[in-house]
Amino acid sequence: MTTKERNLLLTNCFIIALLFAIRISVAGWVLIAIGIWIILPLFIFHVISSNKGFKRYSILNRNDKFTLWLSFISFIIFILFQYDLDDKAGYMVIEGLVNSLTNSRNESDFSTASTIITVISGIVFIISDIYILAKLKKIYKNNNAKK
Questions:
Q1: pLDDT given for residue 87 in this prediction
Q2: Residue 98 has pLDDT above 70, yes or no
């Protein structure tokens, strides 16, 4: 593993841990009731695929690197734009984080936009992660066949 790959891997792990901490700290009823059973496996899947991708970053071609970064950005959007509810109102994760840091509350309802953004970014990061894992498997298979 090169220095660049190690730095990318550490940055990836740090950002995923930070996103997990943010998501848990802004937890509402949706996360507690059903979300943890959906979000936790998605976190684990993304950690595995993105870590494998960043560990082998140097062997990926330009399109594969783009897909890896697309997955990375889509995952961040997926987490930050999730919609949750507490006893008072609904909020996006990023909105809940800002509200808790500033002790304010936005009364606007972004549930429709938040749901659309979350679903689209979720689909994009899942497909991208599957693609990266399949591409790495193909690269390993071709490298082993040459030996």
A1: 66
A2: yes
In the structure encoding, which two tokens stand for residue 27, read together? Answer: 């937890």
Distance CA 28, CA 116 (A): 19
Residue 101: count of CB within 10 angstroms of its CB: 8
From the list 69, 76, 6, 70, the residue with the least C-alpha distance to 43 is 76
Instruction: Of 119, 113, 116, 72, give the one whose Cα is nearest residue 95.
Output: 113
Sketch the domain layout of the chain as residue ranges. Answer: 3-146
Q: Round to whole Å and give the CA distance between 112 and 34.
A: 19
pLDDT tens digit sequence for 9-33: 999 999 999 998 888 888 777 777 7
- Cα–Cα distance between 1 and 122 in angstroms, integer? 29
Q: Which residue has the tokens 């700290």?
A: 25
CB atoms within 10 A of CB 38: 12
Entry field: residues in the chain? 147
**In the numeric block, which tokens belong to residue 71?**
């997955």
Residue 147 has pLDDT above 80, yes or no: no
